[in-house]
Amino acid sequence: MIKAYAVHEANGKLEPFEYEPSSLGDNEVEIDVMYCGICHSDLSMINNEWGMSRYPLVPGHEVVGTVLQVGDKVRHLQVGQAVGLGWHSAYCGDCSPCNTGDHNLCGTAQGTIIGHHGGFADKVRAQAKAVVAIPEGVDLESAGPLFCGGITVFNPLIQFQIKPTDKVAVVGIGGLGHIALQFLNAWGCEVTAFTSSEAKKKEALELGAHRTLNSRSKEALQDAEGEFDLILSTVNVKLDWNLYLNTLRAKGRLHFVGATLEPLDIGAFSLIGAQRSVSGSPVGSPETIATMLDFANRHDVKPVVEVFPMDQVNEAIARLESGEARYRIVLKK
């Protein structure tokens, strides 16, 4: 029997919930959950903001724990090994993205909290391919957010071959942005933080930014014209994206990892004249997650977390909703 916390309707409270899993598949593992991060995507699923939630819903897709059981065909993971599980709990293994290593782009990938019970629980099961070993030395308490927030901002560095000599700006210094600043600084980039919060300016510099720019100042954006190779947007609000495009160098890229729901209002001439690009990406493949963990371990990149006991999950959710969390929330079993 797996003991979890589930919500039974949109905007509901999480309540104790038990379910009996089916027999462990040959290619599956069962994880003894130690920690589970809370992501804004969990909140979106709880409230059915994306119209895909199915209840009862057990959230939690930033899982850290140890392997409790392995299926008969699992060879790369062992009982007792420290592992993590992120947004996906299984892949088809047969499509073109899977066959070329881009499992995160699998069109039929199983979400960890979409039609599947997640990690707000004492145990969780997943396809072994989706479970990634955690290197010795990684702080397990803060590692959970790396499996969603961390990989979301790390993946573009790999996909677009960002160079240590590049100038990169991050829009939004929150749950995603504060990890991005650390990764980019360790990568060797010249890092700028766009933020409208006076309180976050000092924190951004401490986290790895070399300077900050006021994201609400049209003059500041105009003064930065033609500066950046990459702008990484982590926010979910609408901004004047044409102003940001003009801060890019020729062939620069405005890249979205924050899920803004409003259409992008972008002038074509801002792209055409300087051959700029606009793009977006989800989380990374298991291989890229493993690379990220190795890099984070070498460079001591850690999400800044607030820890709540698992049985205080509703208080933790309220803290997330308040917008005051610095910067990610983690549940501890």
Mind telling me which CATH architecture of the largest domain this is? Alpha-Beta Complex
Whole-angstrom Rg: 20 Å
Q: In DSSP terms, counting alpha (H) and pi (I) runs of 4 or more, how many helices?
A: 11
Average pLDDT, rounded to a whole number, is 96
Q: How would you classify the quaternary structure? A: single chain
CATH topology of the largest domain: Quinone Oxidoreductase, Chain A, domain 1
Largest pleated sheet: 7 strands, mixed
CATH superfamily of the largest domain: Medium-chain alcohol dehydrogenases, catalytic domain
- Helical percentage: 25-40%
Question: In one word, what is the shape?
Answer: globular
Overall number of domains: 2
Describe this structure in words.
The protein has 11 helices and 17 strands. The two termini are 16 Å apart. It has helices at 40-46, 96-99, 140-143, 149-159, 177-187, 198-207, 218-223, 241-245, 268-272, 286-299, 313-322; strands at residues 2-6, 15-19, 28-38, 63-70, 82-85, 88-90, 110-111, 123-127, 131-133, 167-171, 190-195, 211-214, 228-233, 248-256, 277-280, 305-309, 328-332. It has 2 domains: 2-148 and 284-332, Quinone Oxidoreductase, Chain A, domain 1; 150-280, Rossmann fold, CATH 3.40.50.720. The protein is α/β, with parallel strands linked by helices. 26% of the residues lie in helices and 27% in strands. Strands 3, 4, 5, 8, 9, 16 and 17 form a 7-stranded mixed beta sheet that branches. The chain has a 6-stranded parallel beta sheet with strand order 12-11-10-13-14-15, with helices on one face. Strands 1-2 form a two-stranded antiparallel ribbon.
